[in-house]
Amino acid sequence: MAVETKLHLIGNAHLDPVWLWRWQEGYAEIKATFRSALDRLNEYPDFVFTCACAAYYKWVEENAPGMFAEIKLRVAEGRWVITGGWWIQPDCNLPSGESFARHSLYGQRYFMEKFGVMARVGYNVDSFGHHGMMPQLLKLGGMDSYVFMRPGAHEKTLPHDLFWWESEDGSRVMTFRLADSYGNWASNGMEDKIRNHRAVAAASGHAFMSFYGVGNHGGGPTIHNLELIHELQERPDMDGIQLSSPNRYFSEMKQMNPDIPVIKDEMQMHAVGCYSTHSESKAANRRVEHQMLTAEKMSSLANLMRGLPYPMEALNRAWENVMFNHFHDIMGGCSIKEAFDDVRDFYGEASSIGAKAINAALQKISWSIHTMKPGVKSLSKEKDWQLWEQDDLGSPLVVFNPLSWEVEAPIVINKKVAGVTDAAGIPLPFQTVRASRTNTSDKWDTFIKGKVPAFGYQVFWVYRDKAFYVVEPTDAVRAEGCLLENSHICLELDPATGYIRRWIDKRNGGRDVLVGDGAVPIVLDESHSDTWGHGLTHYRDELGQFGGAELKVLEHGPLRATIRVTSYYGNSVLRQDISLQPDSSDVHVKVRLDWREQHKMLKLAFPVHVEQPHAVFEIPYGYIERPANGNEVPGQMWVNLSGDEPGTTDSTESTTFGLSLINNAKYGYDVQDNELRMTVVRSPIYADHFGERDEEVEFMDQGVQEFVYVLSPHSGSWQNSGVVRKAYELHNPLLQVWETYHDGDLPQISEGISISSDHVMAVAFKPAEDGNGWILRCQEIYGREVETELSMPSLNRSWRSTFGRCEIKTFFLPSLLHEPVVEVNFIEMKHTEER
């Protein structure tokens, strides 16, 4: 066998810290597996061990420091090889784009701090699928190669198992798909595996990798494994076999530069049911991911503006919780029931940390805003037990916007009042709406819409008794019977079913948004599916639909009109509060589902009135178009279905129409022809891999869950729909703090950032990990190259930058103003600093 066709044997131990066991058992197994690997290194001088996941190393460091010291020596020796520079082996479809950045930031910096090395090879051998922006995320995380196993050859045909993988922005990583498994559980099959892989190497004309070692519950390479390998190496017909690592393999391949294909695609699909299992943990993940970014932004602004100490240690601990919950058997919803009790605790701790940081930051800033009114000599609550208002002077409500563009959005004031003005004293229209409390007659809140600057705030003045003359909106919204209407749309509900019977877009010549009923709750049979959805591509076996609807008008307008639709199926109840606001074609739906079905799935279906449909899905830090073939696929906050208006002969911009669906908790979708479906819930058995089902099994997602979705019709391409900003606005509502009268040196309205291009957004703003400046991460969101100007007044910084298609840029803003703004990677290092 020629040198270039040799077989690299990769000794590894795939470790699931959570799956059919809880994290405490995984913790113990990691220590035992690392001890076993160290024993093998002592026993076999040529043995090389490969292991990923910074979280595992931190556990060992904390609980077995003597063994950790041994590992450090073996890493320095080069025989213990660190791969996969992420905190854990996450699900590679469901975490947000910024979450992947944090896996690199915290994982790689941990490895550099403790071992003096960073992973050069991305390593997710057990994750169920891999989104199309992975190459850029890997490159920005300091990794230029990648190893994965799923989807296998039976799930996705690739021209070659070694290839260049390219993402939308043009980033490339050399990628290897494992031919079968990341390990072996029966030693008697190992020789056949090695022979088969050796033959593949010979046929390919270049080297190949073969992974060995007991996996899933740890274990790693065994004595028998290594004895067999040494025996095979002595045979003349088995030349070219060597104990190796992924680092060595990719280094040799790049030097050899074989003729391998370039693939620009996602690596899907495996275990399609995992995108909709265990609704609670998925909803918590979405919420806490956004909360963490808000906590960082607000804490950073409070530090810059007021000197509030930044809670770095606490927020890093919270991120570790979030990243651990990204593990593929957690995020994929395929672990045992007890494991999800721990998942709830991890998200709960992270959320509590984030909430405390947000509150401290907002109140530090709001307390420094000048809100004093003439005539106020001291604070008194003589007028009202809740508000500090005196003499009809109003009470200050400070409203914050954590997003990088000005947002006009609903603000719910938790008190019934007579008038509201903005900081300039301009009276605002308002509406009295039902509160969540029922405190004698005090059961009403006040609803307004307000504009708040980017990364900034505005003070609104709330008057308990003083009313103002307000020009009512010319586009008042109304609800009557089965109709919701404003100047943009008219939406008619079916009184018997509660489905959307007719939806007219007035802006586009009175065209129909849907063809047929919309928001149809379809119940599907999934008794043929295990928890993962192994072997399946779609869920289409319809059993029935929710019906027997009851409709009730909750809000009449003029700022918000809402109709509540309650429908039934079996023992389950679906309640949808469908709302419309003035001057908008977006329909907001607040859902409360009490689900009592087993081995069934619920989808909401929307047949969009278009031809030649194109389905585009948000993926982490990007988007992808997929065929409208009915397959179950993962998506993030939004999906868009656009196409030609019926009757047109071309697909020019003027004849293109579409519908975006945005939600705050769901990840599973399918599109067949012109029908878009969102998967709301599945109820398989916990951790069921086609096992023996008896009366003792427990089913997922039984009981009440709540979430929100938004339907946004548009003309023109999806890039012109504003869907990305709308999705972030849904997930990042305006924040508020009641204040009182006090002097301060901050104005009543403030902007924290300005970005000239509307398709570049700042996602993260935080202190640099090294403590000598600030980090601002931005992304181009619509696949269009652009030059933009950015400025941050609190840092006295302005600069220009050019973004490529779907490019992510991380800017380091030094504390010293004479030092220029520079681009860094996710690890907060310049490219020349990478090791």
Task: Explain what the structure shows.
This is Glycoside hydrolase family 38 C-terminal domain-containing protein. This protein has 835 residues and is α+β, with helices and mostly antiparallel strands. It has 5 domains: 3-270, Glycoside hydrolase 38, N terminal domain (7-stranded beta/alpha barrel); 274-366, Up-down Bundle (Substrate Binding Domain Of Dnak, Chain:A, Domain 2), CATH 1.20.1270; 395-471 and 734-738, Immunoglobulin-like, CATH 2.60.40.1180; 478-731, Golgi alpha-mannosidase II, domain 4 (Beta-galactosidase, Chain A, domain 5, Distorted Sandwich), CATH 2.70.98; 753-835, no CATH class. The protein contains 13 helices and 45 strands. The strands form 10 sheets. Strands 24-25-26-27-36-33-32-29-30 form a 9-stranded antiparallel sheet. It has a 6-stranded antiparallel sheet with strand order 23-22-28-35-34-31, with no helix packed on it. A 5-stranded mixed sheet has the order 4-5-7-6-10, with helices on both faces. Helix 1 (23-43) crosses helix 3 (65-77). The protein starts with 6 loop residues before the first strand and ends in an 11-residue tail after the last strand.
Topology:
Layout: E1 7-11, H1 23-43, E2 49-51, H2 54-63, H3 65-77, E3 80-82, H4 97-115, E4 121-124, H5 134-140, E5 145-148, E6 162-166, E7 172-177, H6 190-204, E8 208-212, H7 223-233, E9 241-244, H8 246-256, E10 262-263, H9 279-306, H10 312-324, H11 328-331, H12 337-366, E11 395-401, E12 407-413, E13 419-421, E14 431-439, E15 442-452, E16 456-463, E17 478-480, E18 483-485, E19 489-493, E20 500-505, E21 511-512, E22 520-525, E23 542-545, E24 547-556, E25 561-569, E26 572-580, E27 587-595, E28 600-607, E29 611-619, E30 622-626, E31 633-634, E32 638-644, E33 656-663, E34 668-672, E35 675-682, E36 703-715, H13 723-731, E37 735-738, E38 749-750, E39 754-755, E40 760-767, E41 773-780, E42 786-792, E43 797-803, E44 808-814, E45 822-824
Parallel strand pairs: 1-8, 1-9, 2-3, 4-5, 5-7, 6-10
Antiparallel strand pairs: 6-7, 11-16, 11-37, 12-15, 13-16, 14-15, 16-38, 17-18, 18-19, 19-20, 20-21, 22-23, 22-28, 24-25, 25-26, 26-27, 27-36, 28-35, 29-30, 29-32, 31-34, 32-33, 33-36, 34-35, 39-42, 40-41, 41-44, 42-43, 44-45
